[in-house]
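Data card: per-record layout.
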Amino acid sequence: MCLAIPGRVVELVDEVNRIATVDVAGVRRNVSVGLLDAEGDGAEPGDWVLIHVGFAISKVDEREALATLRGLRQGLAARGTELSLPELRPTCFDPVRGRGGSPSSCRPGSPGRCRSTSSP
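The structure for this 120-residue chain is written out next.
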């Protein structure tokens, strides 16, 4: 059985090799996002992706990603293991800076987009 875990792309750290820093439940890892380019739907900061053995294999919407993380946490808790998830709160994700701010920092025409993300 294979397991893919959702994570939010924080920043592209190596454009040539298509490596991105991804936040998974508060832990940041570098993963390859090149497979998504082949599908014509490359990843960018703020996107949620499913990660399997260091590769982003598909993009998912935020609702599905958060539901999957919660399900993983519940399944692990049932086995006596905890998955610590940071508090999820609405933020404005700024793809230029690769991090969020307060929802009031989102202004019409700004590059940021408001969404619920994990706090850094």
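Known properties of this structure: The helical segments are 34-38, 62-78. The mean pLDDT is 76.

See the next section for split statistics.
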